[in-house]
Amino acid sequence: MAADMTLLRAPIGLPLVLDEVSTSPVAARRLLTFGLREGASLTLLQRTASGGRIALVGESRIALGKDVCKQLGVSRG
Amino acid sequence: MRAACCAGPANTSAGPDAAVVAIVGAPNTGKSTLFNSLTGAKVTMGNWPGTTVEVSHGRWQLGDQAVTVIDLPGAYSLDPQSPDEQLTHDLLLDPDPRERPDLTIVLADASRLAHSLYLISQIREHRINFVVALTMGDIAAKRGIEIDVDALATAIGAPVVPTNPRHRTGLKDLAATASSSLTLGHPLFAPSADARRSLDSQPSAENDGKKGDGHTSVKDGKGDACCCVSEANAEERFAWIARTVAATTNAPQGYRQSFSDKVDRVVTAPVVGPLIFLGVMWVVFQITTAVAAPLQDWLDQLFSGPLSDWTRDGLGAIGMGGTWLEGLLVDGLIAGVGALLTFVPLMALMFILLALLEDSGYLGRAALVADRMMRVLGLPGKAFLPFIVGFGCNVPGVAATRILPDAAQRILTCLLVPFTACTARLTVFVMIGTTFFGAWAGTAVFVMYLISIHLIIGMGWLLRKWLWPNLVEDPLVLDLPPYQIPTLRITASVAWLRLKGFLQTASGIIVVTVCAVWLLQSIPADGKSGFGAVEVGDSAYGVAAKAITPVFEPTGFASWETTSAAIVGFVAKEAVISSWAQTYALAEPESDTEPGSLGARILTDFTKSSGGHPIPAALAFMVFLLAYTPCVATLAAQVREIGLKWTLFGVALQLVTAWLLAVAFFQVGRLIA
Question: How far apart are CA B443 and CA B448, in angstroms?
Answer without folding.
Answer: 9
